[in-house]
């Protein structure tokens, strides 16, 4: 059996990047044909955006803004160049965000992710992601079918009926959340049902901490993780190397400083920004609000694509202080006005029954804390203290606002 899904997985990294960026101008041109993207991107010349530096100069589009943007012009807010009736399926996901199904046999790019998890043509797959209104079930269903697998569209819940399906169809693979996998197999064993056919899994949609990984492995199932979203599809996937997640070969992925569109150095935690090169449903510098960091080097599994550490929290860290919201974008504005500062972290606390905040700022230069405090007040309309600290003092966790007030 082939170890890799196709030759692109072991392609020279520079050649892969060049191929992706050769497709970018067409996606940009399609995006500029929509009123919302035309306003958002301004007068950009698609032919001039052919590398990462040029892409990084374009504004990000934040997923958190999409519900409001779409309400201004239902269903897609003017960001989709194709009429709704041209798509195969139309969905909604929490927000709500309205999304079409892209074209092709594998519209969300998941066949290679299943292949990396050990799924092969002819496998029977139990898919427990939901098929109702949201695209989750179809994202994994179409990926398995593109790989040549038969799919049981089970959806979530109904444990007894799921056990009937397992005994009847003998699926080798499972797609769904990791916690439901454990519940399902343990329930089957407790009821003396034969669930022994399940030997491999691709899990997503919920945390898969080491304790749960060990529990699933103890059930005799080799489970791998996928990082996917309803609007993008498969973004990154785990391989037998078990060292981070490989970025899907069809996406351009950047990691930026929260509140900005500025790429961070390799290894620094930042927000995930993706570009989807589908002219019918382009996504240009789409900021997902999730944090991760790039891993150096190539994967031991032989795949040569970029790797990320996986999901590391949320980038949308707004906090309400004295009745006013402070946001990562405001911290980024302080950094812009004071380029002598490096990593920043706004710490929100409570003292004497009132909110307080301190901007901790890394610097190796002679900086006036008073001047930075004045900028903090001007940007946030709130007073706060400033603590200047040496470079490397702040955690590399992607947080620019840390709300440390006690709960309750």
Summed up:
The protein is α/β, with parallel strands linked by helices and 408 residues long.
Strand order of the largest sheet: 5-4-6-7-8-9-10-15-14
pLDDT below 50 for ≥5 consecutive residues: which ranges?
Answer: none
Determine the fraction of residues in helical runs and give it as a percent range.
Answer: 25-40%
Note the overall shape.
globular
Keywords:
408 residues; alpha/beta; nine-stranded mixed sheet; four-stranded mixed sheet
Description:
This protein has 408 residues and is an alpha/beta fold. Strand 19, helix 11 and strand 20 form a beta-alpha-beta unit. The protein starts with 12 loop residues before the first helix and ends in a 5-residue tail after the last strand. The mean pLDDT is 94. It contains 11 helices and 21 strands. The chain is globular and about 70 Å long.
Can you lay out the helices and strands and say which pair or pack?
Layout (H helix, E strand, L loop, with lengths): L12 H20 L2 H7 L10 H5 L4 E2 L3 H6 L18 E4 L3 E4 L10 H6 L7 E4 L8 H12 L2 E4 L5 H11 L3 E4 L1 H13 L9 E4 L6 H9 L3 E8 L3 E5 L7 E3 L3 E6 L13 E7 L6 E10 L1 E2 L11 E2 L10 E3 L2 E3 L1 H10 L6 E8 L2 E9 L6 H12 L4 E5 L11 E3 L5
Parallel strand pairs: 1-13, 4-5, 4-6, 6-7, 7-8, 18-21, 19-20
Antiparallel strand pairs: 2-3, 8-9, 9-10, 10-15, 11-12, 12-13, 14-15, 16-17, 18-19
Helix pairs in contact: 8-9, 10-11
């Amino acid at each position: 059996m082939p170890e890799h899904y196709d030759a692109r997985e072991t392609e020279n990294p520079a050649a892969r990047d060049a191929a992706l960026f050769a497709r970018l101008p067409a996606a940009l041109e399609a995006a500029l044909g929509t009123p919302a993207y035309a306003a958002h991107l301004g007068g950009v010349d698609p032919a001039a955006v052919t590398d990462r530096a040029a892409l990084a100069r374009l504004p990000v589009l934040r997923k958190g803004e999409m519900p409001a943007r779409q309400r201004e012009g239902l269903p897609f807010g003017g960001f989709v160049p194709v009429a709704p009736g041209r798509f195969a399926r139309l969905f909604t996901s929490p927000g709500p965000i309205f999304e079409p199904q892209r074209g092709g046999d594998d519209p969300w790019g998941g066949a290679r992710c299943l292949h990396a998890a050990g799924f092969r043509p002819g496998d029977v797959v139990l898919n427990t992601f939901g098929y109702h209104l949201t695209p989750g079930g179809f994202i994994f269903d179409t990926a398995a079918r593109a790989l040549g697998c038969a799919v049981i569209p089970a959806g979530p819940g109904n444990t007894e009926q799921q056990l009937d399906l397992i005994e009847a169809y003998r699926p080798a693979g499972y797609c769904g959340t990791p916690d439901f996998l454990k519940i399902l197999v343990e329930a089957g064993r407790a009821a003396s049902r034969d669930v022994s056919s399940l030997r491999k899994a691709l899990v997503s949609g919920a945390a898969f901490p080491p304790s749960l990984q060990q529990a699933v492995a103890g059930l005799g199932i080799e489970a791998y993780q996928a990082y996917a979203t309803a609007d993008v599809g498969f973004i990154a996937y785990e391989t037998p190397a078990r060292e981070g997640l490989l970025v899907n070969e069809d996406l351009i992925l950047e990691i930026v400083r929260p509140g900005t569109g500025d790429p961070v150095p390799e290894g620094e935690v930042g927000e995930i920004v993706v570009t989807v090169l589908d002219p019918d449903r382009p996504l240009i510098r789409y900021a997902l609000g999730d944090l991760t960091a790039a891993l150096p080097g190539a994967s031991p599994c032989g795949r040569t694509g970029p790797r990320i550490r996986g999901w590391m929290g949320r980038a949308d860290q707004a906090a309400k202080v004295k009745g006013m919201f402070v946001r990562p974008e405001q911290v980024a504005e302080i950094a812009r006005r004071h380029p002598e500062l490096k990593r920043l972290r706004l710490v929100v606390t409570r003292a004497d029954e009132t909110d307080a905040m301190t901007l901790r700022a890394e610097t190796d230069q002679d900086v006036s804390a008073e001047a930075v405090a004045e900028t903090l007040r001007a940007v946030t309309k709130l007073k706060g203290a400033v603590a200047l600290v040496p470079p490397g003092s702040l955690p590399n966790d992607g947080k620019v606002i840390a709300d440390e007030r006690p709960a309750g």
